[in-house]
Amino acid sequence: MTSVWSRFxxxxxxxxxxxxxxxCVGLAPERLGLAETxxxxxxxxxxxxxxxxxxxxxxxxxxxxxxxxxxxxxxxxLGRETTPASWLLGPYLRLWTGHAAEPEVRRRAxxxxxxxxxxxxxxxxxxxxxxxxxxxxxxxPEAAAPVVATTRxxxxxxxxxxxxxxxxxxxxxxMAAFPGRLAFVGLPEQVAALRLLQxxxxxxxxxxxxxxxxYVGTNMYRGAVRAFLRAQGVRDEVPVARLExxxxxxxGHLRVETxxxxxxxxxxxxxxxxxxxxxxxxxxxxxxxxxxxTDLSVGDAWSPELEAAGGGWSVVVARSGxxxxxxxxxxxxxxxxxxxxxxxxxxxxxxHMLDFKKRGTFLRLDAQRRRGLPVPEYGYRPAAIPxxxxxxxxxxxxxxxxxxRRWARRAVEAxxxxxxxxxxxxxxxxxxxxxxxxxxxxxxxxxxxxxxxPERWREIAACRREGPPA
Length: 470
Description:
Layout: H1 4-13, H2 23-27, E1 32-37, E2 40-45, H3 51-63, H4 71-77, E3 94-100, H5 103-108, H6 114-124, E4 130-136, E5 144-149, H7 152-157, H8 172-177, E6 182-185, H9 188-199, H10 203-206, E7 208-214, H11 223-230, E8 240-247, E9 253-258, E10 263-267, H12 268-271, H13 275-278, E11 296-300, H14 304-309, E12 314-318, H15 321-332, E13 336-340, H16 343-348, H17 351-370, E14 380-382, H18 387-403, H19 406-413, H20 417-440, E15 448-450, H21 454-466
Parallel strand pairs: 4-6, 6-7, 7-11
Antiparallel strand pairs: 1-2, 3-12, 3-13, 4-5, 8-9, 9-10, 11-12, 14-15
Helix pairs in contact: 3-21, 17-20
């Protein structure tokens, strides 16, 4: 009989389906650890595993988002539309643009500071006693780590985005031991795993009363920062003293302080040149861009009007009744500035990335399936994808394949950021302009076919009956 761990290896890790959520390690820390690899942080056994370990790993296997996420069943469990009116943003009740009203909260955030403001309000009103957040430099300056924030200052210390793959659910044991209720901030795959753990009745996950998360397009492996530093003459042995991914005025810039006193910066749209070379695999095979299983999700509000206004603006998606009530309460109390926005405008702000996720993901998975490899299943797929969009995907796939080559990475490191940053930004704008008619053609009206996964959901429910792992 095939062991649970061997299935992890053959169906999730080997084919590149691991999404680095950290749930398996968080559920079985004495059995599994994380190893940093060129393909990101991957789970590895701490010792030889035997049949007795199968029972302990069964829940981790049941909820693993590297196998996919049964979205129709999950949405039904959350009390939402099982087949959303639009699969582009997922089920929602209200859409706004806005920002934190308090200048300090807004200034210290990646965009509008909405997530930070909500967490602070939840803590100060004692609705929760802690918030699981990702904090850059929590343990070492160059890396981020999940922590449980309990104060305003701890929330603000974890503000801003982190564009480096970091498993968050390794913190499950700390969540289980925490004396109080929790809020949780995670990426779409991490949120999905948490929700599946809640559905399975896991005690740590059930402590979470409110779930928030950012929109997520692409993320990068840890080597990206070192590539940026090498391009500016910083040797690998020089430690990083401080790292901020979106410092300064919105949309922000990468800022790295080294131990030898240098300060290196690059505008956000300049250091994005690293994406084709270090984009994580999980962001290419996950269709959830707008963090659809949260209570409240937030993204940058890209529009000429708001970008000209400056200061940092967010598009805010309330997906549950409690999220709507909380946002309205915070607006009345002068803690949030929000105004309604129509769906078409909210979707148009991120049309390029919605296409990358909602159509491109399934094209990439189809290519993987044709190679005879296991693929994650998400409970839905586009009813049809135009032929010209399939041709565009070939260019995207070729760009990522080229970027993974060691010689290509070394070549771009030899170019000064002052040249490669602006050049990449010009190329990015040119590509978006040239591909926009194809990538957005039919996207707003795209139809999706639900493909329920009752067996997967029964597998999760069975874990609930069996209780938490030993």
